[in-house]
Amino acid sequence: MGNSQSDQVLAETDRKAKAESSQSQSQPQAIKPTAQVQPQKEAARTPRHEKQIVPPGDYKAILKEADTPLNKKNLSMKNMYDHHYSGIFLNQMKEKFWVEKSSSKKCFMLFARGLSITWADTPEYWHWKSVQEATPRTSYDRDEIIEVAELLNVCWLGVHGKYEISRLSPETNYGVVFVIMQKDPAYGWDVPVNIRLILPDGTKRESRENLMERPGGDG
């Protein structure tokens, strides 16, 4: 990725409140941050039958980053389409790329190893564990193992990610989503989290979210 602010989008979240977890009989709370960039939903314009995928113009450049190179000579056209629908892992399992079937638009997900997490390599604060990747989209999917970051205890939570907008589909409205999972018990999440999106022109969009009141929280 380049360092020019003009062609990057930056998403970050931080908090000052102390997040504590039970250290005895209970499992520690967990945060499995991923950042997902995908087109926002629009009214369906395609017929009900499956529309054949049109690979993005730069898909060959993207596939050069694939962790497992695709041998086109040994793949049928249907299997090639299935690869694009179900997703292709990039950059040592730090990222996943797939094509949305209904629109043929590009989608990307950054896994925890592809984000910048404050104190992520301090074992007192974070625990890295391997889990099965949980976003299957077609029967062609295989079980893949990715690393997630499990939060143990921090006084400052900072998760940052950035992405080159030149990789996204042109003339498309995208949404940026942080994906986390909370264990029970989880403490400190009643303090709102600051979420900030910085656009290429420097514009900031900020909000405060109480995660305990979101779907899946205790509230």
Automatic annotation (TrEMBL):
GO terms for molecular function: carbohydrate binding. Residues 1-57 are annotated as: Disordered. Transmembrane segments: none annotated. InterPro entries: PP2-like (IPR025886), PP2-like/Lectin (IPR052147). Pfam families: PP2. It comes from the Eukaryota. PANTHER family: LECTIN-LIKE. This is Protein PHLOEM PROTEIN 2-LIKE A1-like. It comes from Punica granatum.
